[in-house]
Amino acid sequence: TNYTTAQGLANNVVRIITEDKSGNLWFGTDGGGVSRYDGKSFTNYTTVQGLANNVVRSIAEDKSGNLWFGTYGGGVSRYDGQSFTNYTTENGLPDNVVTQIVIDEQENIVIGTNFGVAVVISFTPKFQTENTNKNIPSQNSLHSEDLKNYTPVIEIYNSKTGYPVKDVNVGQNAMYKDSKGIIWIATGSDKTSLVCFDPSEIKKNNKPPDLFIQSVKINEENICFYNFIEKDSAVRAQQEVMTYGRLLNGEARSELQKKFGDIKFDGIAKWYPLPENLVLPYNHNNVTFDFIAIETGRNFLVRYQYILEGYDNEWSPLTEKTSATFGNIHEGTYTFRLKARSPEGIWSKPTTYTFKVLPPWWRTWWMYSVYILSLTGAIVLIVLWNGRRLRVRAKELAGEVRRATVIIVEQKKVVEEKNKEITDSINYAKRIQQAKLPSIKEIQKALPESFVLFKPKDIVSGDFYYFHKNSSPMSPSARGIEGEVFIASADCTGHGVPGAFMSMIGSEKLDDALAHSADTSEILSHLNKGIKSSLRQTGSDESTRDGMDIALCSLTTGSCVIKYAGANRPLWIVRNGSTAVEEIKATKKAIGGLTEDSQHFETHIVQLQRGDTFYISTDGYADTFGGKENKKITTKKFKEVLLSIQDKSMQDQELYLDNFVENWKAGTEQVDDILVIGVRL
Questions:
Q1: pLDDT higher for 341 or 537?
Q2: Which of 496, 483, 491 is closest to 465 using CA atoms?
Q3: pLDDT digits 0-9 by tens, 542-566
Q4: How much is the pLDDT for 541?
Q5: Which long-range contacts (CB under 8 A, 24 or more apart) does 89-93 make?
Q6: Residues 145-177, buried b or exposed e (16+ Cβ, 10 A)?
Q7: Could you tell me if 555 and 561 are in contact, meaning their C-beta atoms sit under 8 angstroms apart?
Q8: In degrees rounded to 5, what are phi and psi of residue 405?
């Protein structure tokens, strides 16, 4: 039976085949990654899923069921059944071309590469803060997610580390573990050819390396500290030779004393010339430490980590360098902590060195005292000077205030006189407006069960009420009926003085309109033309838009039939015993403004019964602000109030509506004129 890419295989060039503990077959291909066959179908894994490289030359499974894939140029991939973890030369491999993988007797991962053999023996935390030689986990006890925080401990066996093996050949079992645990390695070298590798015979040093700080450099210069304290010229000369490789002459010693004489320390440590309790002036705040770990076997595989506490936030990455430099160190006390890892992954105990850097003269405590005293003195001088300046200015201002007060008093008198004149004029205008308004007694004589609630916002009002009763038949053109009553509520544009002018014009034009017709529709049409003519409104955008909203009703004494026409103001009816307010809607056009001269206003004829009540009003009552949330009464609330007072007489209704709106305002300024007319048949 043949299997190709047509059946799901990743690539038709297969390099390696192995079977895992679950009975799955794994195929390493030449460019297609890895294919797993479970007896029914193939599952393919490539770089998209995390594989290091799609050319796979070797496969091995460890004791925990992790699969290791050797790739051509991508290093090694470890698959734990969920995700891949990849290792390359950056993690310690000698080369990224991996040709063979074998699991040895100790469950270590033996990796054959183009440049020798690598053995993964354990893992260590990436950034250690203490000696963590104990409880180092083995490679097969960690999941991929755990491995992110660990660095593999890898032993390298090649010509560079002193072992006779270089390039490991490609091919099935080119690296083979026999029944005794010995690994046989086929190489591509004429000198080695076949290598026998017994991991158990490798002698390892399980002791941590001895670690020493050899010297401290200041501003990257070697210093013979004995020149500052040693009296014995022989000892001093010996140390000069060890430090500089030569004896210093008198001029060089003087230059050294002049350059570094302000450095302070208590003594010099034994064996390595390190100054004890070193105190550095701020101009010498660049420090270099040279260090070494004693490793008799493979010292070139020793790795170091260090941290300067107070300067760094975390330990440095692993390094093979044996020096560390810290520049531009701020004032303070610092501790240099250093540790080393042996080729076998054993960490030494941290070695420490503590020193102090002094602040520059402008940041010393005595200079801060000078700053504080200088600042305090400056503040005192500024306060004294400013106080004197303010006193002088206060005298000047007092004079200016006196002069300004005289002027203000004079201006106040003028303003008060002008205000009195204006107020007197407005009050006089009020008397004129009231004279034009119909008598309440005349209205109540014709309509005994009625009220007119009239509350102007200002002294004069833009709202007005209108009343007319035909005492004799009108002209044939008007066709009036004797005893017919006309009553209206009108809301002119604006309020105060401008609104009052409009109300005077409106009342006059309403008289003119009534002289021409007794039909409410025609009356409003004549009124519209009269307002537009008086204000010279042509209908263009530049024309004044002043006008009015009005509700006009007519009824014959003794009759229960109402004729109503309205411009933006409705008629409300509460029938005797009803629990709802019936609304007769107005024509949605205003009187005057941009309304056409030919505008028709519809007349509604309504049949009522004795005991029924009707209301006409302007929008001022419903638009009054107040209440707990300082909102409008609203039309809905106004209707509810009207329904609630139907058991009262009309005079009591007027009093109730007046008290209700005053309580609702509760001190809030009235925003518009208020006019409500009620009539009960």
A1: 341
A2: 491
A3: 557 788 999 999 998 778 899 999 9
A4: 58
A5: 91/151, 91/152, 91/154, 92/118, 92/151, 92/152, 92/154, 92/156, 93/118, 93/154
A6: eebeebbbbbbbbbeebebebbbbbbeeebbeb
A7: yes
A8: -65, -45
Q: Residue 81: enclosing H or E segment and its boundaries?
A: none
Distance of CA 38 to the CA centre of its chain: 51
Q: How many Cα atoms are found within 13 Å in the side-chain-facing hemisphere of 629?
A: 3
Contact 654, 678 (CB under 8 A): yes
**Backbone dihedral region for residue 339 (phi beyond 0: left; psi -120 to 50: alpha; all else: beta):** beta
- The Cα–Cα gap between 468 and 619 comes to 23
The rounded distance, in Å, linking the Cα atoms of 596 and 288 is: 97
Q: State how far the Cα of 585 lies from the Cα of 552, in Å rounded to an integer.
A: 12
d(CA 276, CA 267): 5
Q: How many residues does the chain have?
A: 681
Q: What are the distances in angstroms from CA 127 to CA 124, 300, 313?
A: 9, 21, 12
Q: Give me the pLDDT at residue 15, please.
A: 92
Which tokens in the block code for residue 453?
């609630």
622-659: per-residue pLDDT in tens? 999 998 888 999 999 999 999 999 999 999 999 999 99
Alpha helices in 135-194 (DSSP H): 144-147
Nearest partner of 174 among 194, 191, 198, judged by Cα: 194
Strand partners, 175: 185
Q: How far apart are CA 648 and CA 659, in angstroms?
A: 14
Q: Which two tokens stand for residue 309?
A: 């506490």
In this predicted model, what pLDDT tens digit does every residue of 69-122 receive, in sequence order?
A: 999 999 999 999 999 999 999 988 999 999 999 999 888 899 999 999 999 877
Residues contacting residue 674 through CB under 8 Å, at least 6 positions apart: 453, 454, 455, 456, 457, 463, 618, 620, 621, 624, 661
- Two tokens, residue 56: 């796979």
Give CA–CA dist 496/462, Å, rounded. 6
Q: Which amino acid is at 566?
A: G
Is the backbone of residue 139 left (phi > 0), alpha (psi -120 to 50) or beta?
A: alpha
**How confident is the model at residue 71, as a pLDDT?**
96
Kindly write down the DSSP assignment for every residue of 421-476, as one continuous string: HHHHHHHHHHHHHHHHSPPHHHHHHHSSSEEEEEE-SSSS-SEEEEEEE-SS---T
Buried b (16+ CB within 10 A) or exposed e, 93-118: bbbbbbbbbbbbeeebbbbbbbbbbb
- CA 580-581-584 angle, to 5 degrees, is 140
Contact yes or no for 142/66 (Cβ under 8 A): no
Report the pLDDT value the prediction gives residue 148, as an integer from 0 to 100.
Answer: 66
Residue 584's beta-bridge partner residues?
Answer: 571
For the chain, what percentages of helix, strand and coil (3-state, to nearest 5) are there? 30, 30, 40
Angle formed at CA 642 by CA 639 and CA 645, multiple of 5 degrees: 150
Sheet strands (E) in 493-546 = none
Reply yes or no on whether the pLDDT at 329 is more than 50.
yes
First and final CA of the chain: distance in angstroms?
Answer: 109
Instruction: State the pLDDT at residue 131.
Output: 46
Report how far residue 450's alpha carbon sits from residue 444's, in angstroms, rounded to the nearest whole number: 6
